[in-house]
TrEMBL record:
It is a multi-pass membrane protein. GO terms for cellular component: plasma membrane. Residues 269-501 form the ABC transmembrane type-1 domain. Belongs to the binding-protein-dependent transport system permease family. CysTW subfamily. This is Phosphate transport system permease protein PstA. The keyword Transmembrane helix applies. It comes from Halomonas beimenensis. The lineage of its organism: Bacteria, Pseudomonadati, Pseudomonadota, Gammaproteobacteria, Oceanospirillales.
Length: 518
C-alpha cells in the first residue's frame, strides 16, 4: 500500500477537475458557434444554388413540377410526405405542394423544364412552348430559348440604363420639388421626364412567352416581367457554380423586391455599416472624455463611486427603453424644434421631426456609451502611476500628460470598448424600429446632392430586414432561405467591423508594447 502511495506521489500534480471543466466549456462554446455558422452558411448560401426541378407523376396520373424541399413523416406516423416548391402562384394560389411518398409513381428531371424569375408573382416553372415577338415570326423549341436569352440580356442592360437615368436625372428633381426649391418650370420639366420614363418602359414591353405547366395548362407571360430564365436540369456543375456566383452577387448588390422576400440587400448592408460608423464617431469622444474625467480628474469619493455604479447599471437597461427615449427626446423633442426653426415651410411634413439616420445613431450611441466608458476606464486604471509622475516630473502639464502619455497608452482599451459597442449596436433592432429604420428604403442616405450625407433620411438595416421577412412576410417558408442568407451576412459584417478595430488595436499595442495588457 505504501509503495502504491509513493508511486502516486511521484506523478505530476494536475490542476484538478476545474481545468477540464473550463476547457470543456470553451470547446462547447466554440463547437456551438461553428454549428451556428455552418447552419447559416449551408442554408443561406444554398439559397443561390440552382437546384434541379423534378417532374413528379402521381398514381392517379396527375403531374407537378418543382424543387424538393424536405421529406417528413405523415401526421398519423404511417408513411412520409414530401414538400415541393412548385411556383406558379397566379395559377395555383400557392407555391407549395405536399405529396405523399406512397402516391408518387415516378420522379424524373427533364432537361426542357424552365424556371423563370419574375418581378411579380415570383417563380414560374414549366415548359417553354413558343416565343412570340412583337414583330416577327413565332419561334419554338431551341430557337425560342435562344431568342429569350438574347432578349433578357438586352432588357437587363436597358433596365440598368433606365435606373441610372432615374437616379441621376429624375430623383434629384423630385427631391427639389419636395423641398420647395423648384418653380413652375421645374414642375413642367418633371412632367416631361415622367412622360419619357413611361415611354421608355412601354418600349421595353411587347414580346410574349407561351409556357405550359406540368399538368398541361397554358400561360402567356410578358417578357418584360421576366428577370432571369434558367433550365437547371440541363446545367452542368460549372454552369450551376457560375449561376450561384451571379446569384450571390445580385444578393449583395441589388435592392429588395416582393416585400423583402426576394432580391438583394444592398441598401440594408450600406445602412448597417453607415449606422455603425456614425454611431462610433458619436459615442467614442463622449465615452473617452467621461472615462478620463472619472479616472483622472474627479475626486475619488462617494459621488464618483455612485456615478460608476450608475454607468454600469445603464449597460443592463433593455434596448427598447433607449428607443422610447430616442423617440421622445431626439425625434419629437429636438427634431420637432429643428423643424419649427429651420423647416417651417415644409410642415406638416417633417424633416428632422421623424425617424432618421442621425436619431438612430444617437440612440445607439447612448445604448453603447456605458460599454465604452467602462472599457476605457479599466484601461486607464491599468496604466502605472509612474508614467504620469514621470511625465509631470519632466515638466509636462496635466493636459500634456493626459494627451501625450496616458491616452495613447490607453488607446487599445478604447478600441476594445468600440469593438464591444459595434458588436452590440450592429445587431440591435428594437430601438431602431422607433427612431428611423424602414421596411423599404432603396435610396441610400448618401448621394451627389449637398450635403451628400443626409442624416435625416430613413435607412434599411440587416437586423430589421431579418425581423421583417421572418414575421411580417406573407410566406415565411419562401423567405426562410433569404433570412438565413441575410443572417449570415449580418454576422460577417459585424465580424469585418470587429476585425478592423482589432487590427487597429493590435497596431497600437505594438507601438506601446510596455502596456500590451491594456
Amino acid at each position: 500500500m505504501s509503495r502504491w502511495w509513493q508511486g502516486r506521489a511521484r506523478l505530476p500534480r494536475g490542476e484538478g477537475p476545474w481545468a477540464w471543466l473550463a476547457a470543456g466549456s470553451v470547446t462547447l462554446s466554440v463547437a456551438l458557434l461553428a454549428l451556428l455558422l455552418g447552419l447559416l452558411a449551408i442554408r443561406g448560401l444554398g439559397h443561390f444554388w440552382p437546384g434541379d426541378i423534378a417532374l413528379v407523376t402521381l398514381e392517379d396520373g396527375r403531374q407537378l413540377a418543382g424543387r424538393e424541399v424536405k421529406e417528413v413523416p405523415l401526421p398519423d406516423g404511417e408513411g412520409r410526405e414530401r414538400l415541393y416548391r412548385t411556383g406558379n402562384r397566379e395559377l395555383d394560389g400557392d407555391i407549395w405542394a405536399w405529396v405523399p411518398v406512397a402516391a408518387i409513381e415516378t420522379v424524373s428531371h427533364p432537361r426542357e423544364l424552365v424556371s423563370l424569375e419574375r418581378r411579380h408573382w415570383g417563380e414560374l416553372v414549366g415548359r417553354l412552348v413558343a416565343w412570340v415577338p412583337e414583330q416577327g415570326p413565332r419561334l419554338e423549341g431551341e430557337a425560342a430559348w435562344s431568342a429569350l436569352q438574347s432578349r433578357l440580356g438586352t432588357l437587363e442592360r436597358q433596365r440598368e440604363a433606365l435606373e441610372r437615368w432615374r437616379e441621376q436625372t429624375l430623383s434629384p428633381l423630385v427631391r427639389r420639388l419636395e423641398s420647395g426649391e423648384a418653380d413652375a418650370a421645374a414642375t413642367d420639366a418633371l412632367q416631361a421626364l415622367q412622360a419619357r420614363l413611361r415611354e421608355r418602359r412601354a418600349a421595353m414591353a411587347g414580346d410574349r412567352l407561351i409556357l405550359a405547366t406540368a399538368d398541361g395548362r397554358r400561360l402567356v407571360q410578358p417578357v418584360e416581367e421576366v428577370l432571369r430564365a434558367t433550365r437547371p436540369n440541363a446545367m452542368g456543375v460549372l454552369a450551376k457554380l457560375g449561376a450561384w456566383g451571379r446569384g450571390a452577387w445580385r444578393f449583395l448588390s441589388e435592392g429588395p423586391r416582393a416585400a423583402n422576400t426576394a432580391g438583394g440587400v444592398w441598401p440594408a448592408i450600406f445602412g448597417t455599416v453607415l449606422l455603425v460608423m456614425v454611431m462610433s464617431l458619436l459615442v467614442t469622444p463622449f465615452g473617452v472624455l467621461a472615462a478620463v474625467y472619472l479616472n483622472e480628474v474627479a475626486h475619488q469619493g462617494r459621488l464618483t463611486r455612485l456615478v460608476r455604479i450608475g454607468v454600469r447599471n445603464l449597460a443592463g437597461v433593455p434596448s427598447i427603453v433607449y428607443g422610447v427615449f430616442g423617440l421622445g427626446v431626439f425625434v419629437y423633442g429636438i427634431g420637432g424644434r429643428l423643424d419649427a426653426w429651420f423647416f417651417a415651410d415644409t410642415l406638416p411634413s417633417p424633416t428632422f421631426g421623424t425617424g432618421g439616420l442621425l436619431w438612430a445613431s444617437l440612440t445607439l450611441a447612448l445604448l453603447t456609451l456605458p460599454v465604452v466608458i467602462v472599457a476605457t476606464e479599466e484601461g486607464l486604471a491599468r496604466i502605472p502611476d509612474r508614467q504620469r509622475e514621470g511625465a509631470l516630473a519632466l515638466g509636462a502639464t496635466r493636459l500634456e500628460m493626459l494627451s501625450r502619455v496616458v491616452l495613447p497608452m490607453a488607446t487599445p482599451a478604447m478600441l476594445t470598448g468600440m469593438i464591444l459597442a459595434v458588436a452590440r449596436a450592429a445587431g440591435e433592432v428594437a430601438p431602431l424600429m422607433l427612431v428611423g429604420v424602414a421596411k423599404l428604403a432603396p435610396q441610400v442616405p448618401v448621394d451627389g446632392d449637398f450635403p451628400f450625407l443626409h442624416l435625416e433620411r430613413k435607412f434599411m438595416h440587416l437586423g430589421y430586414h431579418i425581423f421583417d421577412a421572418a414575421f411580417h412576410g406573407g410566406d415565411v417558408q419562401a423567405a426562410m432561405p433569404l433570412i438565413y442568407a441575410t443572417a449570415l451576412l449580418l454576422v460577417l459584417v459585424i465580424l469585418l467591423l470587429n476585425l478592423t478595430a482589432i487590427f487597429l488595436r493590435h497596431h497600437l499595442r505594438s507601438r506601446h508594447g510596455t502596456l500590451s495588457q491594456c
